[in-house]
Structures are given as C-alpha cells and as structure tokens.
Amino acid sequence: MSATALETPAARPARRRDGVWPRLLRDPVAAVALGFVVLAVLAALLAPWLAPSDPYDNNLLAAMKPPGTEGLPLGADGQGRDLVTRLLFGLRVTLLMGLVATLAGGLLGMLLGFLAAFYRRWLDMPIMRVMDVMLSFPAILVGLAIAAIAGPGIPAVVVAMSIATVPLMARITRGSALVVMQLDYVVAARAVGCTDAQVILRHLAPNCLSPIFVFATLRFGQVILLGSALSFLGLGAQPPTAELGAMASEGRNFLFFAPHIAVLPCLLIFLLVLAFNLLGDALRDALDPRMRF
Amino acid sequence: MKGLVAGALLAFSAGVALAQPAPRNTLVILREIDADNYDPARSTARSAGESLYMMSDTLVSLDWDMKTVRPGLAERWDVSEDGKLYTFHLRRDVTFCDGKPFTARDVVYSIQRWVAPETRSPVRWRAGPLKEIRAKNDHTVEYELNEPYGELLYQLSLFFASIVDQATVERLGANFGVQGFNGTGPYCWASWTPRQELVLQKHPNYRWGPPIYRNPAPQVDRVIWRIVPESQTRLAALQTGQADVTQYIPPIAVSQLRQLPMVKMSTQENYFWDHFMGFKVDKPVVNDPAFRRAVNQAVNRSAIVQAVWFGNATPADAYMNPNTAGYDAEAAKLVPGYDPEAARRTLDAAGWAMGGDGVRAKDGQRASFLVYAINTQEGRRYLEAIQADLRRVGVEMRIQLWDATVGWGKLATQEFDAFIMSYPYVTATDGFSLYFDSRNRPTPNRMNWSDPATDAALQEAKTALDPNVRMAAIARAQRIVSENNVWLPMAREQIWVAASQRTEGVRAHGIYGVALYKGLDIRLTR
C-alpha cells in the first residue's frame, strides 16, 4: 500500500514531459479510433485507385446481388454497381462534406466568438443573441429550407451543416476567449500598443485552440451524421453521386429483400461517427491541463 | 426460403404496427396517401377517385376492356346525327344516400358545377366543348356540345363527372367532401379522419351497379379506407388478416406475394398508367431531333424496367398501351428500339463529336442536359439507369430530384431540359390531347411541343363524326410525335391488387389508376 503511494510520485515527472500525441495514443480506444479515422481518410483519398470498378457504370443484370457473389465481395446496389466501389466513393463525398462544413462553419463561428469576446461592450449581445436564434432552428429544417429555395444538392447540405455549426462554435470560442481575455499577457499586449487584430490573432486565438480543436473533432462526427440524414431525405447528393446517406436511403426500400444495400453504408456512417466521437473525447482528456499529473 | 423469411419479418413488423384484427363484415382497404378532399369537382387525386367511385356514380361506366362504355346512372343514351347532342335516359330507381330520389336536375347541377369557372376544376376541359346541359324531364338529360366530341362518354365515366346532391353541396359549402358527402354510390360517407381513415357505410337501397359486375348491390356492411404510408407495414397487415385489400404494393414484393397462399393477387392487362421522359423541344441540345432519337436508341428499356420494377411493369416501346382505344401500331414502329451502336452513329452523323471528357459536343455545346423529377423511388432508380446508359454513348444527363411539395411548381418552369412523369389515361386521344396539344403549354405540355399538324390531328380525333376518321387522325398524331422523339417512352405499370384470404370477388379494374372501381362483387367470408 505504502509502496505504491511512494512509487507513484516517482512516475509523475516522466509523464509530465509527454506531449499530446503520446498521451492520446496511450488510450487504446483512442488509438483504435484514430487508426480507423486515418484508414478512412486514406481510403477516401485513394478511392479512384483502390476501387475495383467505375462508380458510375451500372450493370443492371447484377442489381442487388448479395455480398459474396463472385466479383462482388460486398454485393451490388440497386443499379448493379459494386458496393466496394460505391462505399469508397461515398466515403470520399461524405468526409469531404463533413470537412468543408466543419471548416466553414467552424471558422465563421470562431470569428464571431472572438469578436463577441473581444468587443464585449458592443458586439457580445447582438452576436450571441443571433447565435441563440440560430440554435433554435433544427438543422434539418434549415436544410429543407435551403433545398427548397436553391434546389437539393451537396452545396445545400453543406451550407445547412455549416449554419448548424456556427452558433455552437461561436459559443465555445467566446467562452474560452472570455477567460483568456482576463489574463495578464493580453492586457500587456494591449499596453504595448498591439492592434486589435494582432491581439486576437497572436495572443487570443492560439490560447483558445484546445477546446476549439476538441469541439471540431466531435462536431465532425455530428456533421457527418447530419449530412447523411439530409441526404437520406433526398436533399443531398443527386444521382449518380455516391454518398453514404443517399446510399442508405436507396437501400431502405429493399431492407427485407437486399439488406446489404442499406446496412453497409449505415454501418460505415456509424463507425465513422463513433470513431470521431471517441477521438474527440480522448483528445479532450489529452488536452485538459487538469489531467496532466 | 428467402420469401418465407421476408414474410415472417413482414408479419412481425405488422404485429407491432396495427394490432387490431379486421372487424366482421367490414372491408379494410389500405392505401399510401389520403386525398386533400373528396369533392369530385375540386380534387384530381387518385386517392380521391378511389373513394368517390364508391360514394357516387357517373352517367356511364367503363368495362374491364377499357374500351366499352356501359350504362351507369343513364340506362341508355342517343347521339344526334351531327354528334353535338347526347340524350341520356336516366334510371328511375336511383336514390341518394340520404334517401332523396335522383333526377335529371342532379345531373345538370353536377355537370354545371364541374365546368363552372368559379369551381376552378383543373380538369373541366374533360367535359368537352359543352354548350348547354339541360333536363328535358325528370329522367332525361340533354348534353349539347358546340362541336362533336368523340371522347365524351369516356370522359363522363371518370370520377370528375360524379353526380352529387345540390342541397348537400350548398349546405356544406367549402366543406363538401370534407365534413360530409351525398352521392348515389354503393357506399355512403360515414366519417373521415384525415390522414388516418375514411369510413363508408353500405348504401342499403343500392342495386344500380354497372352491368360489368355480377351483383349490382354492395355486399359488405362497411368499408374502411385506411392510410398506411409504409409499404412493408401494408403488406404485413394484409398477410396477418388485419386488412383486406391494397393496390399499393412495391414492385419488388409482387412476385413473393403471388407465391403466398394467404394472399390473393389480381391483375388487369388493360391498365393504362405510363412512365415517360419528355424533352423540352425548344431548349439547346434537346432541340436536336437526332439527339432525341439517339437518346431513345441508347436506353435499354427492357433491362431498366426489369431492374426497377422487377418484371412487374412492361417496357414501353410506344407512346400508348397497345390495348388502348386509338393505339396505332405503325406509330409504335417509329419509336427506336435499344441499339447503342445506332445511337453512336446517329450522334456522329448529327455532328455530335466525342470530346476529351467522354461527353460529346457540337459547335461548342456539350451533349449535356438537365432532368427535373419528383423524387420517387422508381423515378430515381430509372433515371440513374438511363444516366448510365447515356454515359456510354457520350451523353451527360444531370438529374435534379425535387420533393413533391415543391416539385410540381418546379415542373411548371422552363428551367430544365427534360422531365419524367407518370400518368393515367383512358384512350389514345385522351393521353395525347393532354400532353401534345399546343394550347396545353407550359403544363401539362411541358415539352413545349407546338406543331400545327399535331394540333389539327388532335382536333379531328376529337371532333370527327366517323369513328374511322377519328382513329386515322389520332394515328397521325402518334406518328408525328413518335417520329420526332418528343418523349422517351419508358414503362407501362401493371396493376396488382392483393387481397386477404377472407376476401372474395376482388378484381382489379384500374380506371384512372383506381383498382377497385365501384367495389362491388367483393364479399367477406369471415
């Protein structure tokens, strides 16, 4: 008992020197999640070289063939296209949609959050109330509205996903920035005559990045799910583009007859979202200064 | 084996969804969607027609062959020499659901209400060039036209021309067909819970059913039209005896249902509900007749129809179903068959040269066109297959699917180059007048097809006195349109009605897409 108590402090200094990556990878769940994400991104990037067939060329004779059919390890969809190919290309579109939406919505949200925190007297109230209004609109409704006006398609879904991300990111950013704003070095930077832009970019932003990064990772998973849901409703990818949500939607009607068409894309979405959520959780733990002991 | 598993799964999901068994002597009919109202003058929905045929009658009825007009409320009729005056002699034993006797005044009122501009019926053109309708006496109606109209009797068999009771219409106003109804049909309005169920009660005096039925009187006490949007739930309810009849069967399930002993399936070969793609003939790229011809040659209809409808639709190799009155076999020969090599030759000859990106071009214009469609299961799937076929011959087809709520509005615009659509029709003249008359631009003539020769042929097909001249005229219209490849005819739906084990006498009719028509001859054994 006392031996352990004595040994533990000895181990501490070694850990304290660890960076974020080693601490992250020490968690086996996080390592697996990260591995899956890396694999998925690689598969998406290399889809044109990995895919065994043309994603848009159909073979109606092979329509709905089950997994394991010769030449079709995961079966074929309703158009007789190889599901391996379709999943690879679907992954590509889904990840890209998630990335663009998280980046666009995240950057805009960050900007608004910093502005609200920095110009607290003038901008905090208006910006954050607008964010509250935006939060009260369900993202699906926003997606439906955009699709009704501009026509369904990937851009409509990405815009809806971005809009849904902005207020959340603005809140997180503002929260962290308000804390940092009180710190001495910010006051010092202002005292030596830095412009507002310099203070925000050089001193405020770098010190708020941890929670933003964690949130972006978690949000990425949610955004993928939202994008798939919108595509499932027919608002997203238009034929013949492969997109995981749209693929699930196509297969839904044949769930009893050819379950693989819907189940495989759903499974992939599930794994992706799970991986990003686990990764986000682990990242938060790894970045949390209170956990560094 | 696979069918059994699917059946068991279906049964399981039904047990969860609707757990009440169908009541005694009550026919439970399932359908996908409800109608906005049940007023024949204000709704053109098939779901309205389904119930209106049961709640009301028309002057004439249509036989199973979809060609022979039979008596309805009129037991006989005469047509004047000049074809402009139809005299209908009405039955004397007919009463409305509330017991009031039916007379010629009711016919005059209902038809006048249908065509009156203030009613704003979208299908009032179906009543023809009506000059005046008048009651000669209590049981004789004179229907006078400005010019002959060979289609009149077919049109009067459609549910838009249903006879309704003036007093009830005036009492309920805008709520007629919403809060109540009064017709002369075999079943009477009992109650309606929108998007759930419409309950009808047997009309006790009714014995004037069309002669196409063995028994002119209804044999079930109640009919419930229940809305079940999910197809799997509908099928499961049917197999477990919680419902009796449905015509809303996904094509993939038809062959399995036909093998199930507890489900009785009925079909009808004279069923006219076709799918097609129409080209806007005045838009770039698709305004080239050779281009449209090549599209027709490049698309493998048989393979697509097999993959999309699982053998439960027929590839449309002509603009009209061969069983329709007025079908022209010569015109059918002008519709190109599947031949991708010929498609490539046609495009080459017309100057569409293959470009580096796999898409042809001519004078700097890429061989690319935009299709609008309402997002339906079948539509999406066959568009995607057409897209793949066209890609092989160097043509790019872009697809834009719309939700039904905005889709009809989008289809009325000039933003697209082609569209897909499916529709019911009665005769060749009926279908062609709807789509190819230049006066019907921009909808339903979304192709902007404006051709004086077609218009003249359609006019003659409607107004000529001699049936042979009418046939020749509609044949001419079909040839002109076929030669110009204004459409890519796609598929002819088949109608299938599934009935539970306790149900007898269910036979698919299919007028305007309505399977059960008057709902007569149907009995329940348990």
UniProtKB/TrEMBL annotation, chain A:
Positions of transmembrane segments: 29-51, 95-118, 130-150, 212-234, 254-280
SUPFAM superfamilies for the chain: MetI-like
A UniProt-annotated Pfam family: BPD_transp_1
Assigned keywords, A-Z: Cell membrane, Membrane, Peptide transport, Protein transport, Transmembrane, Transmembrane helix, Transport
InterPro entries: BP-dependent_transpt_permease, MetI-like, MetI-like_sf, OppC_N
Main localization (coarse): membrane
Highest rank taxon of the organism: Bacteria
CDD domains, A to Z: TM_PBP2 (cd06261)
Keyword Transport: yes
Domain (ABC transmembrane type-1): residue spans on this chain: 91-280
Localization of this protein: Cell membrane
Membrane topology, from the record: Multi-pass membrane protein
Family from the record: Belongs to the binding-protein-dependent transport system permease family.
UniProt protein name: Glutathione ABC transporter permease GsiD
Species the sequence originates in: Paracraurococcus ruber
Lineage per the UniProt record: Bacteria, Pseudomonadati, Pseudomonadota, Alphaproteobacteria, Acetobacterales
TrEMBL record, chain B:
Main localization (coarse): periplasm
Signal peptide residues on this chain, from the entry's feature table: 1-19
Alphabetical keyword list: Signal
Compartment list: Periplasm
Domain spans labelled Solute-binding protein family: 68-434
Coiled-coil regions, chain positions: none
InterPro entries given in the database record: Peptide/Ni-bd, SBP_5, SBP_5_dom
Family: Belongs to the bacterial solute-binding protein 5 family.
Protein name: Peptide ABC transporter substrate-binding protein
